[in-house]
Amino acid sequence: MLAAVGMTLARVAVAFVLSMTVGIAIGMVAGRSRAVDAIIDPWLLIWLNLPVLVVVVLVYIWVGLNDVAAVLAVSLAKIPSVAVTVREGARALDPGFDELTAVFLLPRLRAWRLVVAPQMAPYLVAAARSGLSITWKIVLIVELLGRPNGVGFELNLLFQSFDVTGILAYGLVFALIMLGLEALLMQPLERRVSAWR
Q1: SS3 per residue for 130-154
Q2: What's the distance, CA 140 to chain centroid?
């Protein structure tokens, strides 16, 4: 179980970081530019409604049955929801603060850290929280369909032998891991980024 859980968590971590990075970039650009948003919006809508199973199968066909394809499939499935959440946050940014940073000639990086990031914090935390909860579920599907290890693979084996106890054991372990991540990582992060309020 430890090896399977470790493999799954490694895939979750890589896919989570990748989907958050790309999703935040897309969301910020779309939220700050109406022209870009007009181009991206229909694609985001299609991407959001495309079934995860279709994405996973297509990536496995195009890239192959390997870990790169597994992580890529999970990331591609999660990027649109991160982008939409961040886009809404970017749209909600106070334009008065943009004027303030221009008047005081703040460099972009400092303006991001002191002005934009605090306003975006609730949206980024919401995207991270939903991203984490969905990412590990998608990783299980990816492992079930095409990986020779991980929790999804183990669940497939347990299903084939009708081992309900084993399935429940894996479910309980993952629930405990997610509760731990929420208590030790997500809640303290949320308190820290919203402390300015």
Answers
A1: HHHHHHHHHHHHHHHHHCCCCHHHH
A2: 15
Sequence letter at residue 116? V
Spatial distance between the Cα atoms of 128 and 88, rounded to a whole number of angstroms: 14
Interaxial angle between packed helices 34-49 and 67-91, expressed in degrees from 0 to 180 and rounded to the nearest 10: 130
Residue 197 banded pLDDT, cuts 50, 70, 90: low
The rounded distance, in Å, linking the Cα atoms of 80 and 44 is 6
How far apart, in Å, are the Cα atoms of 194 and each of 44, 56, 85, 159, 191?
Answer: 28, 36, 17, 43, 5
The domains of the chain, with CATH numbers, are: 2-193 (1.10.3720.10)
Query: Where does the pLDDT of residue 182 fall: very low under 50, low under 70, confident under 90, or very high at 90 and above?
Result: confident
What's the sign of the alpha-carbon dihedral 164, 158, 19, 40? negative
Q: How far apart are CA 44 and CA 13, in angstroms?
A: 23
pLDDT, tens digit (0-9, with 9 covering 90-100), for 80-124: 999 999 999 999 888 888 788 888 888 888 888 888 888 888 899
If you count them, how many residues does the chain have?
A: 197
d(C-alpha 51, C-alpha 87), whole Å:
22
